[in-house]
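Q: How would the structure tokens look for this protein?
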Amino acid sequence: MIHCIGDSHISFFSGEDAIQPVWPDKSRDRLPWFRTHHIGAALAYNLPREGTRTQGREKLFEVLSGEVPDGATVLLSFGEIDCRMHLTKQAEKTNTPISEVVHSCLDEYFKTVGEVIALGYRVIVYNAVLSRPRVRSSRRFSDAEYATHGTLAERTESLRIFNSGAKDRCAKAGAFFLENTPHLVDRNGTIPAWYFFDSIHLSQRAMPVTLRELAALIPSLGIDVPPLRPPTLSRRLADWMARRRKRLLKEFRKVWK
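A: Here is the predicted structure in token form.
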């Protein structure tokens, strides 16, 4: 059993295309390999700090002490919120290269990763997921539901540096690094809408490749990998039409309220 703790992206490991309730409410876990613990919009940068608005540190260690057996495998999912908004904003505000800002964030994050390892857990760090662009341009835009900062290219570069740096730090710290993003991107360097159930969260369509990578990373887990089903053109078109219909119905209901 892998105990998955983190921000809303931990919901992916529940096996359900929905954001899971925030701990201490229980997740609706459907997959046999994972127990998910969604602790809210905690930032990777703030994990070493107590008293933050989201209380990410306090919740992380409360889950570990109250929900996770000694010596268990723990998967940590943090950083997507940092890359999507805060790191690009900090780089712009301080006129600092984005690489310096990202590595500073990783330094803080891995202070806490090291603490979790020191408690005797086997630790897996999950990559930050590249969010789905609503537009295929580099212009600045703001998502009403999930705030962003900077251009798509800037956020993508921030995330690339974050994941690369996290992978290097895992190797040095004795943790595992689980990545699925490189296996989902298309020739344009973006993840198709096919793999998302909203603007930023992966759907279960991305689970087979994730399980494949996890099984290769830690064979002793004994995970059975389901068959991979790459999206055909007809299936992607049907998916686009379904999303479009859902969006139009949503707008229609707003007008007729």
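The helical segments are 56-67, 80-94, 98-118, 152-173, 207-217, 233-255.

The CA atoms of residues 118 and 231 lie 42 Å apart.

Upvote if useful.
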